Every structure is written in C-alpha cells, then in structure tokens.
Amino acid sequence: MIRALVFLALLLTGTAQAETMKMAVTTSFHNSGLSDVLLPAIKEDTGIEVQLLVVGTGQALRLGEAGDVDAILVHSKAAEEAFVAEGYGTHRTEIMYNDFVFIGPSSDAAGVAGAENATDALSRIATAQAPFVSRGDDSGTHKKELSLWAAAALDPEGFDAWYNAVGAGMGASLNTASGLNAYILSDLASWLNFGNKGGLALLYAGDPALFNQYAYLPVNPERHDHVNAEAVAALEDWLTSQRAADLIDSYKINGETLFVFNAKPGE
Question: What is 2-97+211-261's CATH number, 3.40.190.10, 3.10.180.10, 3.40.640.10, 3.30.70.270?
C-alpha cells in the first residue's frame, strides 16, 4: 500500500519535479534494446529518470553492496538470494524471463544442434575442442555457463587454448565469437538484437536448465541511507504493472519475442 501511494504521488507530480535514481543492470538486458523502450515510458508515467550502470551481474551486486546504486536488475537467482540474505537488498521481485541459448558456427563441427540437453551440448564442444568464447566476467551468463560445465563434470580451469574467457559484456563477447567463428552461451534477447552474426547461428535451445529469470532488487536503505527508497519503490510498482507487462511482452525483433513478463503485481 505504501509503495502504491508513493507511485500515485509521483504520477500526480509528473515530470515537473523528476526523481532520479541509479540502477545497475546487466549487459544482456541493455544489449537487448528493451531499456530503450522502458526508460522513456518510466519517465513519462512516473517522472523517474532512471540512470543505468551497465555491468555484469557480479559487478551489479557489488555496486549494490557498496551503495553506489539504488537498485539492481540482474539474472542469477542464487547470487540475488545471497544479496538479500546478507542484508544488502530488501527483497527480490521477479520481473521477466527469457532463455539462454547456444550459438555457434553454422557448420557445427561439434554437433551441438543434436545435443540431448545443455550439458551434452557443452560436452560435445569440449570433446571436439571447438573454439568457445566465455564471458569470463562473473556475469549472470558466466555464472550459468560455469554451473552447466559443473553439471557436465567438466572444469574450464583445465581447458586448452580452444576455451577463450574474454572478460567482457554480452555484445563484445558475441563479437569475439563471430570473429573466431566460435561457440558461445548467450541470452536469447542479446542474440536476436546482435547485428554482427557472421557465420554464427542459434544451434540449441529449450532445455529447462537454460531458463533465464530477471529480478529487481532494491538496495537496503538501512545499509545506505542515501538510497532513493521512494523512487525505488515507485519503480518497482511500475515494473510489476500492466503497463510494463504490455511493453515487455510486445517487444519483438523480427517477429520474435525477447522477454516474457512474469511479475506478480501486488506481492
């Protein structure tokens, strides 16, 4: 109820006295292009100007811990739950999801397109020692990749030169994969919005293990009293509203939906 009243107050004041808040978001979210749709609508509807810090999930969480942002929007559930449990965030609200996918050379020498599941896809790449690009940046995508290697009983620490950890965002990593004609794990939205596909193609998708949930976490104002808690709460109300649902679900590239809204308004 309090958040709803704050949201209404911001609506009534409009853009005349715009609120400003900082939010750390993943490179995969930003590279999708969805932020270009949501941010103007947020400002129009609430008067909040959201300033984005575009980083990997790990860095976003560290920014939240340090109080350098007011909220974060990331995609690594275990790390998010730890962030809240340790008192850095007040709670975690799921907003939308898409899927991770395996991208690789259309010739597919490793046979990833025929994989039975995600771990089999990685096992085939490792067996073939086919060029593979890893984000290598402690992002949500990197964390997912490492968990899949572990599920396949494989350790990237022991891989040879075919494994390329680039320490970069999703767009830069996809560019590297394109240049090397290499395999890579990507979120679907970034892949669909990527303009330098070269000889790469989407080879494998659909394993439930590749589910990719994005969540909103307010930074705890009891840890950092400069956090703009009112704007953070109003933004959460907007992100869980029907207006957000309509914009997120209708955002498409070449007729393909990039994200699915699954927030539960009022919770």
Answer: 3.40.190.10
